[in-house]
Structures are given as structure tokens and as C-alpha cells.
Amino acid sequence: xxxxxxxxxxxxxxxxxxxxxxxxxxxxxxxxxxxxxxxxxxxxxxxxxxxxxxxxxxxxxxxxxxxxxxxxxxxxxxxxxxxxxxxxxxxxxxxxxxxxxxxxxxxxxxxxxxxxxxxxxxxxxxxxxxxxxxxxxxxxxxxxxxxxxxxxxxxxxxxxxxxxxxxxxxxxxxxxxxxxxxxxxxxxxxxxxxxxxxxxxxxxxxxxxxxxxxxxxxxxxxxxxxxxxxxxxxxxxxxxxxxxxxxxxxxxxxxxxxxxxxxxxxxxxxxxxxxxxxxxxxxxxxxxxxxxxxxxxxxxxxxxxxxxxxxxxx
Length: 314
Hints:
Number of strands: 13
Shape: globular
Order of helices and strands: EHEHEEEEHEHEHEEHEHEHEHH
Helix content: 25-40%
Distance between the termini: 13 Å
Strand content: 15-25%
Number of helices: 10
Structural class: alpha/beta
């Protein structure tokens, strides 16, 4: 899950793991030598938000001038399928994107999802963007600088090459010592693996090498190519990567550390925060949020209460 991050209908998607695009921005120089690519037979149309009606009472919670350009500008790191990613035309799609669009429908304003690097989003909320909807794990540290509205619980899981040739056993993270694990920059999984690497060192065990990538698809590509031994990501992302690679990857171990994720809003914009919270709560109450997730093949994780800055343990 993104920290301090079964769909098959409609237009065909390009490979999540397109090698040429994926390796062009690799964080680790060694990964320029990764080989192999995968294609997906999956396709999607997501959830049709066009029928969602404006709620006049909730829309009235937006004071004049709250949205400087009259639209809801939303930032997402669109490389994290099935939450937020790009289709073959470059359009942002995914369950977070559908949720963002649905929020705009309830508020009666157009909503546009803009692609941004994940670790740049929070700093730009309230200036460049109105909201961040990009699989942000809710943490006390984040809540100290921005408001966060909870909407989903997501855990973490490991992917390995099909057949698990390196015999990766994450039931105890000390078993990962001596292996290389790929993560996305700025995620909870990156933090977790760096802590585990320190634990391996302190225990006198072989080095756990943590490879951090700018995008999740780069990590997936490196795993398919054998550059890394495992990938650690959101459970929804891990499962989707298996499908997108046509079975070249598989998940191992149980889902770990399910935590709430939240929509990011600037602390100096409490009216917008309350309006968005009300919109999300309406989408939860009328079943739309669950339907959005189901359209993307995500059956579990939907919350039934949208809380502002819920109490969480770091």
C-alpha cells in the first residue's frame, strides 16, 4: 500500500509491464539489463459513473471559490493497476479514478484525474491539485500535514516468478534475508522492506537488497525478467500483476497488514474536506462504492464509513 501506495470487460489494455517504457525510468541502474516482457489478455471498462446524480445538499457544502477553476483537479500516480493506471489511449482508469469521478458527480462539478509522480502529490495538494486519490495509506505522519478521508482497507502481499524458483517464504520476513525485493518508491512496502533489511543486518544474516522503482510496473517487469527475487505491493496490485503477466507471476504468503487508505485534502480547506467526506459517505451508503470495486474485480476492502483523519497506528 502506498505510504510516507479480475477485471475483464471492454477495450483492450496494453501490457502493464511493457518493457521499453518500464525500464526507461528504472531507479536501479542494474535493472536496465532486465529482459523479458509480458502481454495481457485482460480488458476493462470499469464502472459507468454517468448515472450518478448531483446531491444538491452535499454540493451546497462547497462554498463559492473553493475550486478556483470550477473543477475538481485530482492527482494520481497512474501506474498502480487496478487502482489507477492508463489505458492504451493514455486515459486514467481504475477504481480510484472511478471513485474520484463519482465524487465529482455527487458534488456537481467536473472531475479530472491528472498523472503525477506518487511522492510529489502531497506537497502539491491545495496548490496544484484539489485532491490526491492514489492509494495513500493513512498514517499519523500524513494526518499531521494533510486531511485524509478513509475509503478502503488494503493489505500487502508478495509476488514471485511462477513456480517460486527462489523458494521465497514470507511467513517470517527474516526468510527474505539474502534475497532482492522490488518495491515502489514512497510506499509502505518500501518502508517495511528497508526495516527488514536493517533487521537482517542486525541479526548477522545475508543482506536483504531492496530495489526501489519509480513505478510499480517497473518492479513487475524486473521480477518477470529475473532481476529481483520478489515484489512487495498492495494486495490488489499483487493479484492484478499475476493476471496481467498471464501467469508468469504468482502471489505467495498471506495478505499482511491491512490498513485504511485515504483521499488527501489540504488542511486549510476544511469545507472541501467535509464536502468530499459527505460525497464519499453517500457513495458508500447507496452501494455505489462497492459496485465500483466489484467492477474492477475487488470484492473486499470497501469501508462503510468515510472518516476524516481516523485514528491509526503507525
